[in-house]
Amino acid sequence: MERYDLIVIGAGPAGLSAAIEAAETGMKVVVFDENKRPGGQLFKQIHKFFGSKEHKAKVRGFRIGQELLQDAEKAGVEVHLSAVVIGIFPHLGITVSKDDHIEHFKANSIIIATGASENALPFSGWTLPGVMGAGAAQTMMNLYREQPGKKILMVGSGNVGLVVTYQLLEAGCEVVGLVDVLPRIGGYGVHAAKIARTGVKFYLSHTIVKAEGDKEVTGAIIAEVDKNFKVVKGTEKHLDVDTICLAVGLTPMSNLARMAQCQMVNKGGAVPSCDEYGATSIAGIYVAGDVGGIEEASSAMIKGRIAALGAAKYCGYITEKEAAEKFVVYHTDLNKLRQGMFAPGNKEKMTCTKTREGYPLSMNLLTKGFLTEKELAVFPDCLQEVRGIHPVVECTQNIPCNPCQDICPMHCICVGEDITNLPVINHTQKCSGCGRCVANCPGQAIFLVEQGEKEDHVTIPYEFLPLPVPGEKGCGCDRSGAVVCETVIKAVKDLPANDHTVLVTLAVPPGMGNTVRFYKKEGGVI
Amino acid sequence: MKVTYLNRDIALGPYVPQEDDDVIICRCEEITKGEIRRAIHEGMYTMTEIKRFLRTGMGLCQGQTCTRLIKNILQNEMKRAVQPNEEPTPRAPARPLAMENYGKELVK
């Protein structure tokens, strides 16, 4: 039986980060993952991440995964793939099913980083082929390059639902609508705005009643719900779809922790109770990432590193003092991500009406996915008459993110120490029109606007194929996706540094510079 | 250790059919919401009892999909919070595997 200092179960963002951190202290580390590829969910995440530099903000998820793998290799971590941990036993032993046999391993410490699984939503017909988790749809698109369907209904408006909807659009699918039982969009406003301006309709306070079809999904019936989430009779509505994606939350996969006899608590599902290092009630067993409570990948990576500190301390590879010093640094990073309107456990998320700066939150953004110009005008630096080219930052909710501040070479945009602050434009600095802020905003909420006598110019971030070409005529769309004017493509800039977020400059009629936010080809198709 | 006994003297009232009783909850074993609700009214007051009575969560996915759903149904019917340690006991093997491989133990 082979023996290690640390066994990590799960090679996702938390597990890999834990393995790297532990190996750097000199521990002999092995990682097991049941999947064929490492990286957990990271390799499906083709969008740019939020946060700040320390959290690898503005880098696409799968690239963060690649970096983690390289770091793990450099640190000398042993990674076993298609290796299923089938049991965890007293005295820190595990059994792994690998290739055609089973094998036993022992360690002085174990970090459980098994992540979470998607929640199901039972309704009539939910077991038909064509109903799938949003994560499954993401796997089909981003790993296997297959469209999950042609016409899709997304259920759930949290960040997963919003991000996957956008990726479905990028993959060339039509998203017929987005349904959520709650009266407010659950995810970031900027994610909602990205899909609203392509014309996707939000059905808030709605639920899915039925998936139609005998052999596979041929349609969906949705209906309004009342305050108690009961279907309002007579509001049923048929939608023509062939695929229904469910993004209705995640449940921690904490079975192994329970099998190890860890004490469990309720936190969006059964999770092991643990201290600030992730130490469970069983000595030597730690948890990291979603298995200890659902957050997101950036948090999981930090939680992985913290759990590794705990394990290294437990095994005597670092002193109590060394662990505490590093812990403070990581914990500060983690706390930065846990701030703002959408922070985990923020009970005011569904009721708050103002930003921390005191501006009224856009109710249209929270219910329809886009801001009206009237609502936007309340925020400073938006929709003002400014001479020359200037950035318009349509970032109106307190979320932890600040790449715009770091990327601007002219220091025009300021977020400040607290990364959940809304960005502020520094008018004393002149914008050079480079467009780096536009391409690097993970929420795609920054636009360059230049108002002129004969025409206005708007530069938008664009991630759809085929790319438009300069001189091409098409439709200018407003924030709701409605076609509002004709437009000519002035410039298309695809810079390697912007990692496939293309800067498209549109010429629009004078006065439309603050209205047009998206480009559709002639006929109003993306 | 403090020992507590489950109170079995519970009046749940009569079983009243619901519109969505025919919706499948446990996909692997094809068990409907109605069957689970009826089982509760017949005296299966815990997740484990429901499991042993109906085989919910004993199929290929080992309850990964339906555990949460059954917990919700039980909480609604019983009007009580189901604690994490009431969920069916996880046992090795945590994932399905071929018996052939299970019997092939590599000893180093």
Q: Would you write up a description of this structure?
A:
The complex is a heterodimer of chains A (526) and B (108). With 526 residues, chain A is of the alpha/beta class. Chain A has 3 domains: 2-117 and 250-337, FAD/NAD(P)-binding domain, CATH 3.50.50; 120-246, FAD/NAD(P)-binding domain (3-Layer(bba) Sandwich), CATH 3.50.50.60; 371-520, no CATH class. Chain A has 12 helices and 28 strands. In chain A, the strands form 7 sheets. In chain A, strands 1, 2, 3, 4, 5, 6 and 19 form a 7-stranded mixed β-sheet that branches. In chain A, a hairpin with a 3-residue loop joins strand 17 and strand 18 (270-272). Chain B is mainly alpha-helical and 108 residues long. Chain B has 4 helices and 3 strands, in the order ββααααβ. Helices cover 31% and strands 6% of the residues of chain B. In chain B, strand 1 (24-26) and strand 2 form a beta hairpin. The mean pLDDT of chain B is 92. Chain B has a domain at 24-88 and 95-102: BFD-like [2Fe-2S]-binding domain (Arc Repressor Mutant, subunit A, Orthogonal Bundle), CATH 1.10.10. A two-stranded antiparallel sheet of chain B has the order 1-2. Strand 6 of chain A pairs parallel with strand 3 of chain B.
